[in-house]
Amino acid sequence: PALWLPLSAVSYSVAADDSETRNSGSQAESPSGESPIDTFYQEVDIQRFPRFFLQGMSVHQQIHCRITSQFDVQPVDEKGKRTAVQVITAAKLLEGDSLSQAVFTQSLAAMVGTKYTYEIDSFSEVVSMTGHKENREAVEFRKPRTQGVLVSNVIDEDGWKELAQLTLFQPPVLSRTSRRSSRSFVRKTTHDWGSLGRWYGKTTFTARPYGRDTKRFGFQHELEYLAPNQQGRVEGKVGPHKSAAENDLPFEIAQAQFKMYEGAGEIVYDTKEKRVKRASEVFHARGAIAATMLGLPTTVSLDERQIFTITITAARSLRVPARLRRGDTEAASVPK
Question: What is the mean pLDDT of residues 174-182?
Fold first, then answer.
């Protein structure tokens, strides 16, 4: 999430080891040395509309960016598990307000060349991810009547995993009885907001009418927010999220409360290629945070709507400028 505070920091995602992960997007090999059984290209279109309210003023942002990656999917092992490797080949800010341009231009530039590795279980769910690293940098902004900095990242670790989950989605294999009795299935869903708390609950997938060589699945999230230090029950297990000692933010959170107002999307699956063709998701949450920094209490209200659209192609479909392939990024100017 994005968060505007009188004093804080900006976060962006970079490779865990720059020297190992920056490359031209060439085909990757599995740890066993096997060649991938499928290579495709992913384009993620991200639109975010954060609004912050504090100290009698409001801050509105508009972020629209596009990230292109190459995916290499490895063969299934003897346990039914597989590995997928994602290499980001381009990242471009298509539109952004002046505040967002200052933050996201650097964030997107740092992404290009990053490599993520996902482990997928026999149920086609992403169970682990490597290659992600949070890097925080204090960026100060001045606005009329107030001064502050922005806490934000383009995509957090769980966000990457969720995008990979949609990209690597495989319909469950149902028995004849199951096909007759139900067109829906449910999966557990969690999303870690780091020191800001977490979401947990379930996602229900429902088969929709489909056409030739395609299957369509709508999905609906039912998520509950847990504030930092708050305990919650997930699959019958109770446990805290983060302790105060683990807080990695430059302020202390006294209280936080959020509610999801929309969380849904659709997956279009190509039955001929046996992979996702496109997917989309909308997430809308509102809430408030009571924080303290340098002894000064501050309450921030947040309203953010996010729209993600994923397009999968068998070949590189975008014309990527040479400067983007080298790791640069360009920001579109926004009329004032």
Answer: 53
